[in-house]
Amino acid sequence: MMQQCVICHARFTWKQVSKSLWLAYKPIACTNCGKLYKVQFLSRILASLLLVGSIFAFNLVSYPTSTQAFILAVLVIIPANILVLPYLMRYRLA
Ligand SMILES: [Zn+2]
Fold first, then answer.
1. Within a domain: residue 6?
2. Cα separation of 29 and 41, whole Å?
3. Whole-prediction pTM value?
4. In angstroms, what is the span from residue 92 Cα to ligand 1's centroid?
5. Partners of 39 in the β-ladder
6. Residue 40: domain span
7. Cα(24)–Cα(68) distance, integer angstroms
8. For site-directed labelling of 47, which of 7, 24, 84, 88 has its Cα 20 to 30 A away?
9. How far apart are the CA of 78 and the centre of ligand 1, in A?
10. 84 within domain boundaries
């Protein structure tokens, strides 16, 4: 579930959060009241762990793997992370 603004309870949108991710965890402004939010340090760690971890885990379970299979997995894992990560990211009032 997407995080809510603590002031006005407006929910962040997936688009807002993913845009923040792409722009190196750029702070998010609530679309309703304009309060500024910064990404939590732990969420940053989680984001990199998930991305690196899922590729690493795939590599382990599918060993021995061909280069093509690995590239295919990366092509699936990365978009899956991009899709899911905005739901997991947590922000705090700036
Ligand atoms: Zn708000």
1. no
2. 18
3. 0.80
4. 12
5. 91
6. 14-93
7. 29
8. 7
9. 30
10. yes
